[in-house]
């Protein structure tokens, strides 16, 4: 695959970097990155990955754009209210960079469809808003053996971590199971400062690009917590848990399942 | 005695990790607890005693994203 003169211009600031160069840019152009959720975290990730020239971006989202989304979901604009997020997202991605091919999955991620979709991608990005889905993404990445960049935001706090299945701590190594429904507030109940989605989502995109390029030190075995009120990052060391129910020595989870109702408790369904 | 909680030195009276959670009014079901970089099984919160200089991390669930 050779770049056109226009592409060499478009990606010149990448190609100038010794860690990227023409070779790295080609890796990016061949890469396939899946965004589970085309909302708060998915928006900035989609835009920067599109700008970076990622070959294929997959978008999974079953929702339509709601007015309350626009405070943080910068992939969608005011005229998009009521339109499927995957459609709106694809338009913005391709307007930014027509080199990118976009695969749309206008459906919810379930134990039934997750592996089939994940198998087609190199890196998975978690941009969902509820625990059952976050655990499902963690488990599906493990069974599909795909690197996962996890993200979460709430109020003024955000968190990112990268998970390489069987090599670094997974989400269940730390959090065994979703919290009981209702105990932990959702963004809808508790609110979230919009810019936080941008900060955490762009770190997720950075991690995904590093994985594609095979450069630097991934955010594995570390949880990076960000406190927007204090403008403070904190890194918490985590390690693989031998008692992990998924990736430990005697796993009790041996196949994919839907761990709880995504619309219960901490994941109230957006107003229909 | 002194322990570090989420990176900050704090004076605590000792006891178990569960005692510490109670003092701080933290519901054990909504947090993952690490002591010296090792995640504690929830069943061990009541049997794990704190020692001088321990590094304790409370990792709260953060589930938003949309």
Describe the structure concisely for a colleague.
The complex is a heterodimer of chains A (272) and B (66). Chain A has 272 residues and is an alpha/beta fold.
Structural write-up:
The complex is a heterodimer of chains A (272) and B (66). Chain A has an eight-stranded mixed sheet, sandwiched between helices. Chain A has a single domain (31-237), classed as Rossmann fold (3-Layer(aba) Sandwich), CATH 3.40.50.720. In chain A, helix 4 links the parallel strand 1 (32-36) and strand 2. The radius of gyration of chain A is 18 Å and the shape is globular. Chain A has helices at residues 5-10, 12-15, 21-30, 42-52, 85-96, 114-118, 131-144, 171-174, 187-190, 194-213; strands spanning 32-36, 56-60, 101-105, 123-126, 148-154, 157-163, 222-227, 232-237. Chain A is an alpha/beta fold. Chain B has 66 residues and is mainly β. Chain B has a single domain (2-60), classed as Beta-grasp domain (Ubiquitin-like (UB roll)). Helices cover 11% and strands 32% of the residues of chain B. In chain B, strands 2-1-5-3-4 form a five-stranded mixed sheet, with no helix packed on it. Chain B is globular and about 40 Å long. Chain B starts with a strand and ends in a 6-residue tail after the last strand.
């Amino acid at each position: 695959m050779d770049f056109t003169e226009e592409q060499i211009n478009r990606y010149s600031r990448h190609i100038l970097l010794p860690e990227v160069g023409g070779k790295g840019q080609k890796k990016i152009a061949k890469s396939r990155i899946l965004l589970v959720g085309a909302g708060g975290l998915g928006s900035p990730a989609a835009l920067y990955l599109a700008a970076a020239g990622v070959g294929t971006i997959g978008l999974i989202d079953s929702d339509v754009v709601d007015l309350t989304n626009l405070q943080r979901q910068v992939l969608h604009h005011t005229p998009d209210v009521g339109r499927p997020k995957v459609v709106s997202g694809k338009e913005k991605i391709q307007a930014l960079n027509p080199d990118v091919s976009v695969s749309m999955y206008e459906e919810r991620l379930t134990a039934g469809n997750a592996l089939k979709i994940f198998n087609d991608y190199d890196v998975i990005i978690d941009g969902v808003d509820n625990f059952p889905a976050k655990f499902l993404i963690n488990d599906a990445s493990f069974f599909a053996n795909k690197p996962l960049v996890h993200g979460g935001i709430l109020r003024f706090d955000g968190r990112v971590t990268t998970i390489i299945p069987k090599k670094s701590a997974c989400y269940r190594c730390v959090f065994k199971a979703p919290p009981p429904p209702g105990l932990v507030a959702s963004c809808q109940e508790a609110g979230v400062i919009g810019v936080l989605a941008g900060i955490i989502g762009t770190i997720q995109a950075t991690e995904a690009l590093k994985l594609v390029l095979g450069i630097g030190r991934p955010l594995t075995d570390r949880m990076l917590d960000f406190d927007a009120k204090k403008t403070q990052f904190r890194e918490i060391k985590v390690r693989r848990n031998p008692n992990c129910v998924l990736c430990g020595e005697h796993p009790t989870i041996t196949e994919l399942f839907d761990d709880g109702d995504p619309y219960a408790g901490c994941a109230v369904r957006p107003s229909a | 005695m002194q322990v570090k909680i989420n990176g900050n030195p704090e004076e605590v009276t000792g006891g178990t990790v569960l005692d510490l959670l109670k003092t701080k009014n933290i519901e054990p079901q909504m947090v993952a607890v690490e002591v010296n970089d090792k995640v504690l099984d929830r069943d061990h919160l009541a049997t794990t005693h704190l020692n001088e200089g321990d590094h304790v991390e409370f990792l709260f669930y953060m589930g938003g994203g949309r």
